[in-house]
TrEMBL record, chains A, B:
Residues 22-32, 41-53 have a biased composition (Gly residues). Residues 1-84 are annotated as: Disordered. Transmembrane segments: none annotated. Residues 1-11 have a biased composition (Basic and acidic residues). CDD domains: HTH_LacI. This is LacI family transcriptional regulator. It comes from Streptomyces hydrogenans. Residues 89-143 form the HTH lacI-type domain.
Length: 420, 420
DNA sequence: ATGAAAGCGCTAACAT
DNA sequence: ATGTTAGCGCTTTCAT
């Protein structure tokens, strides 16, 4: 079967899509063009080529307007609401129009092969004039991968999209998408606790699983489907799974050391009741730190990560017993201004009789009075390290599942510095 | 070329991927299998089929474990770090293994065609046992579309990913992804102010453009590429562009009416200096409302949408002249607790001598003392209406570009209710 | 009821 | 230097 006859039978309309035809006569009769091409195959091809040559000079006027033909074509069919959508221009259409082969045009457009400058230019020009855009799916099929990565968080599976409302995940999500895109990968958003059915139809090269919870099946499902997984340290050792993580022990250590240096002897910890590795490690690190310093283990668990439950836990933490705490570390995404207000309502002066620090990426912390000390988990760094690793695995065939620990950053502000 | 010979030359390794082989002997010599299949073509195919039949009984134990073979296969090659990745199981592999044709297996798996129950079951069972997963890209190519939609916001193009940190966009993004996914479309995140180069390689069926700014090229570029655009009302009338929007006039009207009913006569507006349709309309509606009520037009523009600039604008707004305002409407994504604190620092009692309302999706508003009145722009409703429209356009070929106006919702809380 | 073959649009060996 | 051809993996007429 020749290229020319590909248009017969299966897709008789295609001839009408040849750009030169609309560009040629302008108002010479849209219906006439359609009729002509529908009847004679060879004639359609011939007319298209001829018209294209004529239109070439005209197209020279606007260099960058790849959409010129498309717009013209659309404008030529104003009232036709029920008309079938114009078929897209394919490589073969450009090739025929330019009087070249698919190979040549492909090489010209991709900058591959050895072509004479004139031919390359002719191919490119024709493609531009016709508004040709390569079919991404066909390229992907050919390439064997889609350069698409999934992004899913483990926490908050009962409210599958609220993770975006947490400053930490918002940042992590953005940074992941940004870094990936810079490497040529697009990110698709999946709901927390995604099921097979939600990603099975997607050509995912890999999936990033942020903070998986202890009992979710996501990681296993993905690995069973032989999709590389990039997650936190909890996946360490699983074949096909890779990790990057923050140093949870350092989170606790750095902050409590800082409190201690300021004279605090009764620091209290507020942490959500979560089964992510991070929260479990924070808890363990806290106990260890207190034991090592001979201080009481004061902590309150928030029922959930939201502002409401965390503020409530803060109130509980600050109200305990006759011996009130003298420092508060909130390891949960709560709004710093709200935490500060809560402490005040209970009667604390910050930092007078309570040092305050929050693990948070929320920029409101710098706008309170006093500004609130925060500990950043460096979502941008996590994303960068993760995507770098991902690219290495996908493109250099890296097999090692070793991961990386990203250091956290303590931003000391007035809320945790004893005055005087 | 027969099906059997497809494995020759091009992909000599494939024979080794037949599941039965790994399941068969366990430690009988992994290298031997590789060598065997690499040398003899006919032998490889034959061995694979035979081994598969043997493994069939074994696989009957676990019904739902689609990944059983995959895991077994991986476990069988523990030390081989440099081994080429195991090729994926294709439809033809399943067909050969089951002794059926591609057609039959495809029909069996998709529930199409008329097949005998036994054959259908056999095909399905074999596919499951082999861990077959259809190649999404091939399906997309066949189907002519990828069920993939892009999502990009217009605002904040200088910091292309911070939009996720705004509660409104976080919600809109999540709701868009959720609604789309429920309809079978996945959402890819694009940076604010995306260029052609960032989405050109993606098989996007459509793109959602949230709040385009006046001068950005995104919408034009997409339309020129004949990609359907779903955006706000600012794209009204453009062929190929569809819209859903919030009623910006109602935002101002409802809130100022509410203030007015509470006795406020000097309401002041804080709005960011942005060229989105929403902000421009808010500004216009404000002037109109003030004129209609014979009240002075008090407003302050924040340089940018962030917390810092908006709080600064609030301070300016509340400090103006000898006649202090008696109500404040913040139409910008600022943290309600911060706005409240700012008002207090300047010396206002809320709601005693200042009524306060914020256009915000930030849930911290309910946790302040007093809770802050908010006006929700209903991102969930916007997303739902938008995606519903998108699906209608993409799947029912809807051509009308008419859009929909989503009503806003005023949540009156103590911050805007005069006491007594 | 089942299978053979065409072809979605593209790229890359392999001619010429 | 340019063209011909064979697939990527799947679904779908159309025969049988």
């Amino acid at each position: 079967m020749t290229e020319a006859s590909e248009h017969d039978g299966a897709t008789p309309e295609r001839g009408a899509a040849v750009p030169g035809q609309d560009g040629h006569g302008g108002g010479t009769g849209d219906a006439g063009v359609g009729t002509r091409t529908r009847s004679g195959t060879g004639a359609g091809a011939g007319a298209g080529t001829g018209a294209g040559d004529g239109a070439e000079a005209e197209a020279g006027t606007g260099a960058g307007d790849a959409g010129a033909w498309a717009e013209r074509s659309g404008a030529a069919r104003p009232g036709r609401a029920a008309a079938p959508p114009v078929p897209r221009v394919r490589l073969v259409d450009v090739a025929r129009e330019a009087g070249l082969s698919k190979t040549t045009v492909s090489a010209a457009l991709n900058g591959t092969g050895r072509l004479s400058p004139e031919v390359r230019e002719k191919a490119r020009d024709t493609a531009r004039r016709m508004g040709y855009r390569p079919n991404a799916t066909a390229r992907q099929l050919r390439a064997g991968r889609a350069r698409l990565i999934g992004y899913v968080v483990g926490e908050l599976a009962d409210t599958p999209w609220t993770f975006l409302e947490s400053p930490y995940f918002a940042r992590l999500t953005g940074a992941t998408a940004a870094t990936a895109l810079a490497r040529g990968y697009a990110v698709v958003l999946l709901p927390a606790g995604s099921l097979q059915s939600e990603w099975a139809a997607l050509p995912l090269d890999a999936v990033v699983v942020a903070d998986p919870v202890a009992d979710d099946r996501i990681v296993e499902d993905l690995l069973a489907a032989r999709i590389p997984v990039f997650s936190d340290r909890s996946v360490e050792g699983r074949p096909g799974a890779h990790w990057v993580d923050v140093d949870a022990t350092a989170v606790v250590g750095q902050t409590l050391d800082h409190f201690h240096a300021q004279g605090a002897r009764r620091p209290v910890l507020v942490v959500p009741d979560s089964t992510t590795r991070f929260h479990r490690e924070v808890d363990a690190a806290h106990r260890a730190w207190c034991a090592a310093h001979g201080l009481p283990v004061l902590s309150v668990r928030a029922a959930e990560p939201g502002n409401g439950p965390v503020i409530q836990a803060v109130e509980t933490a600050l109200g305990v017993g006759p011996d009130r705490p003298d420092a508060l570390l909130v390891v949960a995404e709560a709004s710093p201004p709200l935490v500060l207000d809560a402490a005040r309502r209970i009667g604390y002066d910050v930092p007078g009789d309570l040092l305050l620090a929050c693990v948070s990426e929320d920029e409101t912390a710098v706008h309170t009075e006093p500004p609130v000390t925060t500990l950043s988990l460096r979502p941008d760094a996590v994303a960068e390290a993760g995507i770098a690793h991902l690219v290495a695995v996908l493109e250099q065939g890296l097999r090692e599942t070793g991961g990386a620990l990203v250091p956290v950053r303590l931003d000391v502000r007035a809320s945790s510095v004893r005055r005087g």
